[in-house]
Design brief:
The protein is an alpha+beta fold. Among the domains are: 5-39 and 205-250, no CATH class; 260-430, Butyryl-CoA Dehydrogenase, subunit A, domain 3 (Up-down Bundle). The chain has helices at 43-63, 80-89, 93-122, 130-140, 146-161, 170-188, 191-202, 263-283, 300-309, 313-342, 349-362, 368-379, 392-410, 414-429, and strands at 5-8, 15-18, 26-28, 35-38, 67-71, 74-78, 165-168, 227-229, 236-238, 241-242, 245-246, 287-291, 294-298, 381-382, 386-390. The protein has a 4-stranded antiparallel sheet. Strand 14 and strand 15 form a beta hairpin. Helix 8 packs antiparallel against helix 10 (313-342) and helix 8 (263-283) runs antiparallel to helix 13. The chain is globular and about 70 Å long. It starts with a strand and ends with a helix. Bound molecules: zinc ion (2 copies). Keywords: Cell inner membrane, Cell membrane, Membrane, Transmembrane, Transmembrane helix. It holds the Pfam family PqiA. The chain crosses the membrane at residues 46-71, 91-119, 140-164, 170-189, 268-287, 307-340, 361-384, 390-411. Belongs to the PqiA family.
């Protein structure tokens, strides 16, 4: 059995002694209840098996057609790359770029970097360029959105079924399996365990000595002890500054920050830009349909109304929540967290940390409508009968989703706990 180790919480920075976790159990922070460690038996081995299977499915999903649409014996089929190409040809290159990156490039980078790290480790060797591969994995992880794509495909199929006969093809099923494999792989892949194994292979870890450096501090935080937590591999490192910046993590190479730099100003910048673009995203047409019966321009809301009227009310509710409610709640929620942190509020930091976690978790689902539009644009290309093109609001909406994701990534929840902490120190000094 492994001895207890000193852990710092990634959400509130509290230092605590963590006992070794048994498989299936979870160790949570005793102040903010964030998950610190989860016991996984044979985690890296399972992760490798799921990832290798995901690579195969990724290839099948990208080379075979997803769905076919048949009108009067004329069938239009599309692959994922094909639908990205149609967007590009229609002049919607920012949208094509966004869809291509989130559904093709990032899932591929994520699985390949995981393979690169896990295969050598399986044979007891330290992977070459582990730092670079891990950096790639870290970059790709929040931006691969296969599960949102599946939901988008489902909504698109229901919409298309009203127009013509829909023929599900190979990639539709392989994408569903791929989604499950990616979820299983990331559930069993624990970066902390990965780096602990690499470190064991290198025999390179020294125990930490704790010396509180903030006088009068009531609770022991990593920053208070002159330590920095690496968010990626969980290593606690003494904060040594080089030219005003804390150096990179010596174990995994990720940039180290005691607190994310310029966290609040960056969050504000992204939030304000997202708020401005939220207006055209909802007012301008998101889709232009031209058919024998004339031209029609749809906004996000009129798309929801159409689904509701045609009887698909669960999907109407889904699109309404993902496209209208989630972005709005994200902007309001993050705005509230940023203002309260800036004002040094000590009010319910635990609940505010929980709000942050929810915002971070649900943000990606707003991409749903972008994927629905992509599929409709790619498939409804019957020159004489009907064509669908993406409208300007689609680009504004894509930008809102990306900006709110960046805003959530820039916000540092530990700042909320710092306010409570500083107040406590002040009270004790006076
Ligand atoms: Zn915590
Ligand atoms: Zn690290």
């Amino acid at each position: 059995m492994r001895p207890a180790e000193v852990l710092a919480c990634h959400d509130c920075d509290l230092l605590q002694l963590g006992p070794a976790v048994s498989p299936g159990s979870t160790l949570r922070c005793r102040r903010c209840h964030a998950e610190l460690r989860r016991g996984r038996s044979n985690g890296p081995e399972y992760a490798l098996a799921f990832t290798l299977a995901a690579v195969v499915l990724l290839i099948i999903s990208n080379v075979s057609p997803i769905v076919g649409l048949s009108v009067n014996g004329h069938v239009v089929r599309t692959t994922l790359a094909g639908s990205v190409r149609v967007l590009y040809i229609d002049g919607m290159w920012p949208l094509a770029l966004l869809v291509g990156i989130t559904t093709i490039v990032m899932p591929a980078l994520q699985t390949l970097s995981m393979c690169w790290l896990l295969v050598p480790l399986r044979f007891g060797r330290v992977p070459a360029y582990a730092v670079e591969a891990f950096r790639l994995f870290r970059l790709a992880r929040p931006w691969g959105m296969t599960e949102v794509l599946i939901l988008g495909l489902l909504v698109a199929l229901v919409k298309l079924a009203h127009i013509a006969k829909v023929v599900p093809e190979t990639a539709l099923w392989s994408f569903v399996v791929l989604m499950l494999l990616l979820a299983a792989a990331s559930a069993s892949f624990d970066p902390h365990e990965l780096w602990a194994r690499i470190a064991r292979a290198r025999h390179a870890e020294r125990p930490l000595k704790l010396r509180p450096s903030t006088p009068g501090s009531a609770t022991l935080t990593a920053a208070g002890c002159g330590l920095v937590l690496c968010h990626e591999c969980g290593l606690l490192v003494p904060a040594r500054h080089e030219k005003g910046h804390v150096r990179d993590c010596p174990r995994c190479g990720s940039p180290l920050h005691s607190r994310k730099p310029l966290s609040l100003s960056r969050t504000w910048a992204y939030l304000l830009a997202a708020t401005v673009l939220y207006v055209p995203a909802n007012v301008l047409p998101v889709m232009d349909t031209s058919s024998l019966f004339g031209a029609q321009k749809d906004t996000i809301m009129s798309g929801v109304v159409y689904l509701w009227i045609s009887g698909s009310w669960p999907l109407a509710a889904l699109v309404f929540i993902a496209s209208i409610v989630v972005p709005m709640l994200k902007i309001i929620g993050l705005g509230y967290l940023t203002i309260s942190t800036q004002l040094g509020s000590r009010w319910l930091p635990e609940q505010r940390t929980r709000i942050y976690r929810v915002v971070e978790l649900v943000g990606r689902w707003s991409m749903l409508d972008i994927y629905v539009i992509t599929m409709l644009v790619a498939l409804v290309q019957f020159q004489a009968l009907a064509t669908i093109k993406a409208g300007p609001a689609a680009i504004a909406f894509g930008a809102v989703v990306v900006l709110t994701l960046f805003a959530a990534l820039s916000f540092d929840p530990r700042l909320m706990w710092d306010a409570a902490e500083t107040d406590h120190v002040r009270a004790r000094r006076s």
